[in-house]
């Protein structure tokens, strides 16, 4: 299979695509990003890397950070996490509050904002926010084998200034006892996690452990294989919010999107893939990122459902 040629075709199609979606405006610093960009990076199980388009350009990973926060939180408290956050698709927008009251302050899954705020609370235990954020960034650097990964402080500040919806979610959950720390401390940790900046190449590298059943490609284990499978299951069922079913239908890979326009997709045993294009569709997922993965799945046959 000629992966370089497949990537070249995809990049060409995405460069000319008429409908690129619209960049997220509710976080002011994301509203300034040029929507004409598109990048893709693929790391295969044998360690080869293929890139195309703007694969080296850093972008705000936003909700893709929820995959890394979840991995860290499971490492800290294991299955006790599931008493504080559910494992069902929400069928609602990423920042929705509607289910929280009926479900007594327990978010539907770790990949909607409310769920990831719980992850931030778990990862904060025993730490100051600065230390918890430092631990997450170190963890992502280790996963990606890249010490150049850092937080974009401008994005973090922009989120703090405009994050009233997330504040509402956190305070509401605090009233039910789901959060153990002060909401402002938890939110500071959450906003910074969303503001990690990575390129497609770095993101595809960071996803390698999920492609490899939990093993780090440079030796040792990040998580047991059962945990890697479970994280991938949640990515498939909940990774694209209210459009998770559509993404599974079109692409057939576990994937996690972010409002920065990135998507991390994983084909177990085969590939870790990152795509990025800042324009979003109505569900808050990258318009061209989803289309590019659909094309890639068609051209390669990569899908968790392929025989
Ligand atoms: N930081 C964003 C928010 O809290 C993350 C949302 C996303 O990427 N879907 O709203």
From TrEMBL:
Keywords: Acetylation, Hydrolase. The keyword Acetylation applies. Substrate binds at residues 63, 113, 159, 166, 190, 241, 259. It is an enzyme of class 3 (hydrolase). Its EC number is 3.5.1.2. It catalyses: L-glutamine + H2O = L-glutamate + NH4(+). GO terms for molecular function: glutaminase activity. Pfam families: Glutaminase. Belongs to the glutaminase family. PANTHER family: GLUTAMINASE. Homotetramer. This is Glutaminase.
């Amino acid at each position: 299979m000629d992966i370089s040629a497949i990537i070249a075709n995809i990049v060409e199609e995405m460069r000319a695509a008429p409908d690129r979606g619209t960049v997220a405006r509710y976080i002011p610093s994301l509203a300034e990003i040029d929507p004409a960009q598109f990048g893709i990076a693929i790391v295969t199980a044998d360690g080869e890397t293929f890139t195309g388009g703007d694969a080296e350009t850093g972008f705000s990973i936003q909700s893709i950070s929820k995959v890394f926060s979840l991995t860290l939180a499971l490492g800290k408290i294991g299955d006790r996490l599931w008493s504080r956050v559910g494992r069902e698709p929400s069928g609602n927008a990423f920042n929705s509050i509607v289910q929280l009251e009926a479900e007594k302050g327990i978010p539907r899954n770790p990949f909607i904002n409310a769920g990831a705020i719980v992850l931030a609370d778990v990862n904060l235990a025993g730490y100051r926010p600065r230390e918890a954020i430092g631990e997450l960034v170190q963890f992502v650097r280790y996963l990606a084998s890249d010490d150049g990964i850092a937080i974009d402080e401008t994005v973090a500040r922009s989120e703090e200034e405009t994050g009233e919806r997330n504040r509402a979610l956190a305070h509401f959950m605090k009233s039910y006892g789901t959060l153990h720390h002060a909401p402002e401390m938890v939110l500071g940790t959450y906003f910074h996690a969303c503001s990690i900046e990575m390129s497609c190449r770095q993101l595809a590298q960071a996803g390698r452990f999920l492609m490899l059943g939990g093993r780090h490609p440079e030796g040792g284990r990040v998580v047991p294989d059962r945990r890697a499978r479970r994280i991938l299951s949640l990515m498939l069922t909940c990774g694209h919010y209210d459009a998770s079913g559509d993404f599974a239908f079109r692409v057939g890979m576990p994937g996690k999107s972010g409002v920065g326009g990135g998507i991390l997709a994983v084909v177990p045993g085969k590939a870790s893939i990152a795509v990025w294009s800042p324009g979003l569709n109505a569900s808050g997922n990258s318009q061209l990122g989803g289309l590019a993965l659909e094309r890639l799945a068609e051209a390669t046959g990569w899908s968790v459902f392929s025989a």
